[in-house]
Write a structure and sequence with these properties.
Number of strands: 8
Order of helices and strands: HHHHHEHEHHHEHEHHHHEHEHHHEHEH
Structural class: alpha/beta
Radius of gyration: 21 Å
Strand content: 5-15%
Bound molecules: Double cubane cluster
Distance between the termini: 37 Å
Largest sheet: 4 strands, parallel
Length: 441
């Protein structure tokens, strides 16, 4: 409680200091204050009450506290210096090209119930909360990142997203990349041409020519961040896991906002600490605690509901087969391209290694889930899809069958960002964990 109060005071001080910056960004400062006021309580409950957190989490806690203030100030300084600020919504967006232009790439998916009603006013209610929330952030003018971007890069993944870009384009210029839904040669050629088109757009909008040297730097920077996230994933394979699923999720959510070089450095230093903990057998949860792999839709900031329920029920989440988990770092871009042409091809080829449910068939995802369950020694898998997400909900059947074929227990859950179903979810999670405990005994 004392730490939570400190956080509350810290946020209030931050808010006073940055009101002017937010006003200049055209934000609704009063509504934004109301949005921020819920953060200390939620953050205190989900994160600060965990025992034995790694010391290195202090950087990420602070990053969250200062996300809308200091981080936005940094981004605005970049913008003033002429560097483009680009919003993205998907791990297929070629961030390498934004970084190559010296620009800032920010992930803008929404994970807050607070903005869902506003999104519903221009969209339909029967739509995944991630989309409704992200649009709500823009309409309510309470996301400084959204206010700061020069343009957005959307993609044709699910139907909900691709129709939303047309609406969002009324508010912010939104480029749409056509992501194919199969991975044949013809699809690869289409995606490569889309990557080339985005390179031209980034050049045109930033006034920077993306030569091979610049693109190489963009690739290295994005790859280094992926490597650090993969290193974090590796530490979680230990029993006891040296870090909770909640903390690992928070780190990945923040990867979409932070300066990539600083983020990578801080995460590698946290991993140094975690590797020492692994060597000493120190854990965020007791050795032998039920180990859960989460698989399904991404969990954008500040959606922590599932992780909180699972871990307060006594289990530990050891990996997420999601885009706020392993799909974020899946597939390094090859660094051997010497010409711009080769580099763009390498960037495009990464799409074959990321297995989103928007693809059909998507058997590689089944292979991924089974491999992750094996590598993390998961006792069970929770397959989670956001309400109205058809691709992930429907693919759940194939994933479930594949896991059951290997004798791995699966619990399928569907939910949204509200707290209404928390009691019901808790009951189902507890019953699942009891069943796992019975099997282990
Ligand atoms: S690569 S998962 S980040 S598309 S949850 S909006 S799919 S209805 S977010 Fe995603 Fe890229 Fe795929 Fe990853 Fe639609 Fe489903 Fe909503 Fe989703």
């Amino acid at each position: 409680m004392a730490t939570e109060n400190l956080l509350r005071k810290g946020l209030a001080k931050v808010a006073d200091e940055y009101h002017e910056m937010w006003r200049e960004l055209g934000m609704d400062v009063e509504k934004h204050d109301a949005f921020l006021s819920a953060l200390p309580g939620a953050f205190g409950e989900v994160f600060l009450q965990q025992p034995n957190r790694p010391a290195g989490m202090a950087y990420f806690d602070n990053l969250l506290r200062e996300a809308h203030s200091r981080r936005v100030k940094e981004i605005l300084e970049e913008k003033k210096a002429g560097h483009p600020v680009v919003g993205t919504f998907c791990v297929y967006a070629p961030e390498e090209l934004v970084l190559a232009a010296g620009g800032v790439s920010v992930g803008l998916c929404g994970g807050a119930q607070f903005t869902v009603p506003a999104g519903e006013q221009v969209l339909t209610r029967n739509l995944c909360p991630l989309i409704k929330s992200l649009v709500g952030f823009k309409l309510e003018r309470i996301c400084p990142f959204f206010q700061a971007v020069d343009f957005l890069i959307g993609e044709t993944t699910c139907d909900g997203k691709k129709k939303t870009w047309e609406i969002l384009n009324e508010y912010v210029p939104t480029l749409v990349m056509e992501l194919p839904q199969r991975k044949e040669a013809v699809d690869g050629a289409l995606w490569e041409s889309e990557v080339r088109r985005i390179k031209d757009e980034v050049e045109r909008r930033s006034g920077v020519t993306l030569d091979a040297e610049r693109i190489a730097r963009g690739i290295e920077s994005a790859n280094a961040r992926r490597a650090a996230l993969e290193r974090l994933y590796h530490t979680r394979r230990a029993d006891p896991a040296p870090i909770s699923g909640r903390d690992a999720l928070l780190i990945t959510q923040l990867a979409f906002f932070d300066d990539p070089e600083r983020f990578t450095r801080e995460l590698n230093s946290l991993c140094d600490e975690l590797e020492v903990r692994v060597a000493k057998g120190e854990g965020a949860a007791p050795r032998g605690a039920p180990r859960i792999l989460v698989s399904g839709t991404p969990m954008a900031l500040p959606f922590w509901k599932l992780h909180h329920l699972v871990e307060t029920a006594g289990a530990v989440i050891v990996a997420e087969e999601t885009c706020t988990g392993t799909r974020y770092f899946a597939g390094m871009v090859a660094e051997d391209g010497r010409t711009v042409d080769e580099q763009l091809r390498n960037i495009a080829q990464r799409f074959t290694k990321v297995n989103c449910a928007c693809f059909t068939p998507n058997s590689e995802r089944l292979t991924d889930v089974l491999r992750l369950a094996r590598e993390t020694k998961a006792d069970g898998v929770i397959y989670f899809s956001l309400q109205f997400c058809q691709p992930f909900a429907l693919e759940g059947r194939r994933v479930e069958k594949a896991l059951e074929g290997e004798g791995i227990p699966v619990l399928r859950l569907e939910s949204d960002y509200s707290a209404e179903d928390s009691g019901q979810l808790k009951t189902r999670i507890e019953a699942f964990l009891e069943m796992i405990a019975g099997q282990k005994a």
